[in-house]
Write a structure and sequence with these properties.
By secondary structure, the protein is α+β, with helices and mostly antiparallel strands. It is 22% helix and 31% strand. The strands form 4 sheets. Strands 7-6-5-9-8 form a 5-stranded antiparallel sheet, covered by helices on one side. It has a 3-stranded antiparallel sheet with strand order 10-11-12, with no helix packed on it.
């Protein structure tokens, strides 16, 4: 072992002892908390590349603090996170009754064709916009909207249930209870409803 290596090890040991001496007496585990493993050396010392002379000891996780969390706190945090997500969500701007209105796309659960207009389904209101459904479908596609019918586009995040029908079509329910028919022409779009399918075959192959 070189003289420099010996000095480095001695200084490291002195630093560790000094830190331990100044640790909070009421929190003896403070120095250990936050570390998962601690390197130790054999009495023969550490030799670079000789891993058989070095091993690791796991920290005692019983020393880590336990923070109790009740259901009410979890619900509060969930609502706060949802509120933050809504503030950061993409928005849609459209003209209605002489004004320009802005809505969070998250709050629009479907878009339906109505003649030369489309109806933005937004609880508790709906808004008419002078636009074709095909044009709206293309604009909304990057934001998680899929077409399920020649006259309906739905927000994937609003879909709560899909029920297969004997006809090969599907019945789709969105939040709030409203139901829509998914025709065979567009049923392949149902693949985008979820990224993870568990306990069932993926819809539409």
């Amino acid at each position: 072992m070189s003289a420099r290596t010996s000095v480095d090890q001695r200084l490291a040991g002195e630093t560790f002892v000094e830190q331990a001496a100044h640790a909070d007496a009421d929190d003896p585990a403070g120095l250990l908390r936050g570390a998962a493993m601690f390197p130790t050396q054999s009495r023969r010392g550490y030799i670079p590349g000789a891993t058989e002379h070095q091993f690791f000891e796991a920290a005692d996780t019983s020393l880590l603090p336990v923070i109790p969390v009740d259901a009410a706190s979890l619900m509060l945090v969930s609502r706060q996170l949802e509120s933050i997500a809504k503030r950061q969500a993409p928005r849609i701007a459209f003209k209605t009754k002489g004004s320009i209105l802005l809505l969070n796309l998250f709050d629009i659960f479907a878009v339906q064709a109505e003649g030369n207009y489309v109806s933005l389904q937004h609880r508790p209101h709906r808004y008419l916009v002078h636009e074709s459904l095909s044009s709206m479908a293309e604009k909304l596609k990057p934001y998680g909207f899929i077409r399920i019918h020649r006259s309906v586009v739905v927000n994937v995040s609003a879909v709560e249930e899909v029920q297969p029908l004997p006809t090969g079509e599907y019945r789709l329910r969105v939040r709030g209870g409203k139901e829509y028919l998914v025709t065979r022409t567009y049923k392949h779009n149902l693949r985008d409803l979820a990224q993870l399918w568990v306990g069932t075959d993926r819809l539409c192959g």
